[in-house]
Specification:
Distance between the termini: 10 Å
Number of strands: 13
Helix content: 25-40%
Largest sheet: 6 strands, parallel
Number of helices: 9
Strand order of the largest sheet: 10-7-6-11-12-13
């Protein structure tokens, strides 16, 4: 961001910079008076312009797993979640690869210990499905679906079209609650150890696991940006609106996957001439 006439929002260890002309600077320089961070990505969100440092940012994709999306399990072929997948494949994932932003695949991956320790209000959500036996895939092959959302099962794997885009350096985190920032997932340690300060959230459901993870991350000090069309929910639309409203007005910022891609395409590698 060009202007250095900025207001400091926050404390010594975690602060943003704000200027009326430039919007919000979330690049986290060492001190408010430090030189501006480059490269940086300027993003147009629904409420303000925001600058982020790609080196301190991660894309967190939540619960886009076979269990929730695969037509092989009888899920609708026109499910709203598949539209979110399309936006991620078309815009967000390529943008993050281009900018060097790491991708975190955060999803259910339960162990027997998790089941023993989970409260009944969560366990009952899986009571209707104990396991999937033979599952016939689109190519005619048959796989064992496995126990519902248990770790290392076909049904808990990343949804196949997204799995094809996973790379060896990506981060895979298993969760055992709606929020991936609760229950000993090690998400906080993994992100902090990499110097990640800003999180781009996508996945399903907007008002459940995405919203729960975003709220916990916000509370624990991460910058939170919601990719609205990279998320989906089967809940009534007011539930989605509630999460998007609160994110835009208080928890962080809201933008589209295409907005992210446009920002990356215009990523500023160095200060503008004369600055």
């Amino acid at each position: 961001m060009a202007s250095r006439q900025q207001e400091v929002i926050g404390g010594q260890k975690n602060f943003w910079l704000h200027a009326e002309a430039d919007g919000w600077d979330l690049t986290h320089p060492p001190t408010p008076s430090s030189a501006a961070i480059y490269p940086c990505i300027s993003l147009e969100t629904t409420s303000a312009r925001v600058a982020i440092d790609p080196a301190k940012t991660a894309l967190v994709i939540i619960d886009l797993q076979n269990y929730f999306l695969s037509p092989s399990l009888g899920r609708p072929s026109d499910a709203i979640g598949l539209k979110a997948v399309d936006m991620l494949l078309e815009h967000a994932i390529p943008a993050c690869r281009k900018a060097g932003i790491p991708i975190v695949w955060l999803g259910w991956g339960l162990t027997e210990q998790d089941i023993d320790e989970m409260p009944p209000t969560i366990v009952k959500g899986f009571a209707a499905d104990n396991n999937f036996r033979s599952v016939r895939l689109d190519d005619g092959s048959v796989v064992e679906g496995g126990k519902v959302l248990m770790r290392d099962q076909w049904n808990s794997a990343v949804y196949a079209p997204l799995e094809e885009k996973r790379e060896h350096q990506d981060i895979r985190i298993h969760k055992n609650r709606l929020s991936g920032f609760w229950g000993g997932t090690a998400a906080e340690e993994l992100l902090s150890s990499r110097g990640i300060r800003t999180l781009l959230f996508a996945g399903a459901n907007t008002d459940q696991c995405v919203g729960g993870s975003l709220q916990d991350a916000f509370t624990k000090g991460w910058d939170c940006l919601l990719l609205s069309d990279g998320c989906a929910t089967t809940s009534p639309d007011f539930a989605r609106q509630c999460i998007e409203y609160n994110t835009s007005e208080g928890w962080g910022f809201v933008l589209s996957c295409e907005d992210l891609a446009k920002g990356v395409d215009c990523m500023q590698e160095e200060p503008s001439a004369g600055v």
